[in-house]
Structures are given as structure tokens and as C-alpha cells.
Amino acid sequence: MQRTRSQQLDAIFAALADPTRRAIVARLASGEASVMELAKPFAMSQPAISKHLKVLERAGLISRGQDRQRRPRRLEAKRLAEATRWLERYRRIWEANFQRLDALLEELKAQERPVRRAKGGERS
Amino acid sequence: MQRTRSQQLDAIFAALADPTRRAIVARLASGEASVMELAKPFAMSQPAISKHLKVLERAGLISRGQDRQRRPRRLEAKRLAEATRWLERYRRIWEANFQRLDALLEELKAQERPVRRAKGGERS
DNA sequence: GTTATATATAACTCTACGGTTGTAGAACCA
DNA sequence: TGGTTCTACAACCGTAGAGTTATATATAAC
Fold it and tell me: pTM for the complete prediction?
């Protein structure tokens, strides 16, 4: 059902907005693990963990392997990178603007010209 | 009420898991804006936008200024950086492990020694 | 075959979220 | 003063999320 890029980001960020799921990601960063192994550290039922894994999987953050009855999960770094890219982008833009703003304020201060915004509310 | 670092990450990622809020962040990356200005592009009531702004604010991603009746919002790049740091961390670790795994597989293949996992399930 | 282990699914509860409308309050304008 | 503009708040509704227990499926072991 072809998800848009925006829907992908929805899924990725939503998946990471839960401490249990972030802990799972952290755990998987040091190697693949079965559902049981992943469940062990948490005071939570196995189905609950399976649900969390499903969320992470739908977000593309992890994938399922196969080893006998086990279905070990592993990280998919691509999607982590995708989220990172989104964040980095706006952080950079904003930081650039911040420096521009600094420069602008210096300029205005030098000119001693107070600015009153017009009703139309034009944005730079 | 002193939020833990984990709760902060909860709030940040949850805030970014909504397309409207990401669009608002994108908009604010190019300069501060009033609630009305932020609401304009969306087919959504003003209170809805105010709610979204509250979510972003609770996550520390934006802050409120004051200009007459307006309460212009601006980005707080610090928190974007915080989320980025979390993501980067596990992406890097995993990528490092991925390369180690490659090396390990080469090694195993060279030795032609099939490994059967013992019952205890020790993790490397 | 039976039994055990590992995982997934179903059905349910409870709460949080994203939207609505209506209204209140604060700052400006005439 | 009265009216307009901008924002916030309250109450409500529908749906999705995170957990539960119970059960089903799949692979393995005996």
C-alpha cells in the first residue's frame, strides 16, 4: 500500500517515541536478538514485546530473520539515517538563520532604527 | 516536575511523529511566525494548531515570544540536536557492528565450522 | 505421535491523541 | 468606551495506542 515519505517519517518517529522501543533499538545495536531475549529485561508480557517489534518493523527500523523457531530481529540502519537526515536538515537551516539573525541584529543596532511591523505581516 | 532524559526523548519523537507538526517545524526553520501565520496553510482550526504548538513546546522544540497580541513561535535547535544525537549514536554503533559482522562471517566461512547455538543462548 | 519452546494473533480494557465548536481573555484600534 | 484581532481554554467525540490474558501456530525434541 505504498506509503508516502511523510507517512514513513510518521512511523519512524512514532516508533522511537516509546522508551521500550528505544531500549530495543539500543539492544539491537549490539547484535541481533530473539523475541525472548528482547523481552527479558522488561516487566512486560511477551505479546507486548511482539507488538512493539511490529511497530518497529512497520517503521522499517528492524527486520526479521529466521533461526529454527526463533525469529531474530536486527536493526535496519537505513531508516535511522532517514530520520537523522530530516532532523539534521532543519537544525542546520535554523542554525544558519540564527547566525543571519545575529548579523541582522548587529546591523540594526548599528543603525539605531527601531522597526515596527506593518499590519500585513510579511515574512522574510 | 523534572522530566527524565528518556521522557524528554519521548516528547521530542512523539512531537515529530505528526506531519502537521513537522511542517510547522519546517516553517519555523525559516524564521519565527505567529499562530495565525502557522495555521494558514492547514485545513484545520486555530485551536487545533494551538494544540500542536503546545505539544512542540512541551517537547522543548519551540518557544513563545511576544509581539503585541501575537505570541510568535521560534525553533529551539537544541532539542533537535538532542534527538539527532540519539539517532546518530545507534546508527553508528550498528554500522560499526555491521562491519565487524562482515569480518566475522568471512572468518567463519574460512574455517568451515558450522555453529549450533547452545540452549543457554549466550549473546556475544 | 506427544510435549516443549518460540512467536503470533485475538479480544478486551484503559487512556491519550487529534480533531471539533464555543467561548474567554488580552492587546490593539477608533 | 466599543469593536476587532490574536490566542488560549473547556468540553466533547472518535480513533489509535499500550497493555493485559488466552489461544493458536510453527518448529524442534523425544
Answer: 0.81
